[in-house]
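Appendix B. Chain record.
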Amino acid sequence: MPDSTTIQARSAVLRRSFRKEFPAAVRGEGIYVLDADGNQYLDLAGSAAVNFIGHGVPEISAAMAEQAAKLEFVHTSQFTTPVAEAYAEELLAFAGEHFRGGAVYFTCGGSESIETALKLARQYQIEIGQPDRHQILSRQQSYHGSTLGALSVSGNKRRREIYLPMVREFSHVGMPYCYRCDFDCSDGCRNCGQQYAPELERAIETTNGEAAGFIFEPVSGATLGAVVPPPGYLQIVAEICRRHGVLLIADEVMTGMGRTGRNFAVEHYDVVPDILVTAKGLSSGYAPLGAVIATSKVVEAIAAGSGAFLHGFTYNAHPISLAAGRAVLRYLQERHLVEAGDSSRPGTPASHFKQALESLRNENAVGDVRGIGLLWAVEFVADKSTKRPFPPEQNFAGRVASAALKRGAVCSSIPCKAASTASPVSTYSWRRLRSSPPSKLHGPSDSCVRPRWTRSLHSEVTLRPEWTGQRTISLNHSLSLSSDSCLRCRSRRRSA
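Structure tokens predicted for this chain:
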């Protein structure tokens, strides 16, 4: 392990960026991550919306070690395992009554799970005598994974652009984005859901009977950032899919396992998908794990038809990963962490976090604060009245995120495309920050949220007054969510 905080630029690891220095993380404790120099970071990103139960929970590592001591691995073409059978039953129960009699396919993560769901939808249509149905429809401004099949149904331009010649494209319909609504709503987008939903019906009809499924994120994650659907929208979408024989696939990789204050985000909207995909919080990052949860309708079609799902990964249903996932499920249920993630319930960590972020609306550079549960985003604008964003080449949100990191807070910036360049790989910038902390955000730690974000925001505007036409944004007050100051953070925080 290197002695310095950052790993040198010419590391043997092929990292996500050659132009960024990364702190060397060595330990996690609750909501904190510590680096090799002893600096402590408040993990407001939840390690990319992965960690929900907190870092360093000994019960999880103990369960993994116990399973490893018994059986480390067998291939699913030859064996099942007790941990797989027990965990699948528990996960079906967690998913709700609608999935009774269904089945779970375990993977190593979100992208694998999406690939599995797409192929499962295709095979289902073949099994019921609809071999022409192969198109998977999706939405613009969505993100469903980095593998080629997942990219084909994603609308995240940055992650798709250079690979487009390699993917099969199907229709992407518009999605509600209330802060920048296409329909100029004056009613808080209460009715625009009824205007967006028919786009899906028209797209299905355009396929001439070839639509197999429709995939959606109940709450947008990695592209728009925590956009919550308007009332009635998802219910109309579900009814359209049912009426046309199109499978409804809910991508809950980011929003599932309590992240929004429900077991799964679809529960907020009374929507019951045919296939539900989850990962990230499924194991809370303790092991690579994803899952595809299918209803009995889908499972029985294959069981009564060909009798075999034509798909597989070497490490799917890995016993150690399943032991981690099962222990995480037990931990969050015993400690009522789903309830802790409910931002509408007074006194919860999620409600405190919501209050801290909502107070940022008074800042001149903040256009929108949106989200639900413990999944939130802040959108920055150069002009509030016109909602004009900062020029992409100025990379405002990325700089705020970097400034926050220097102050010991980790958050995720969300890309948008910058001006065209001569390079075949387009450059991108950031104008939104996403925050999705673990459910252990409480007490002294939550009083640090607003001060760290505002100081980071102010540092960027103060140093670059030409971006907003003013020299500073004044900080009138700092929000404290606890009567105690965060002494632990003060003593170990990196200097600003």
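Further analysis of this model is presented in Appendix C.
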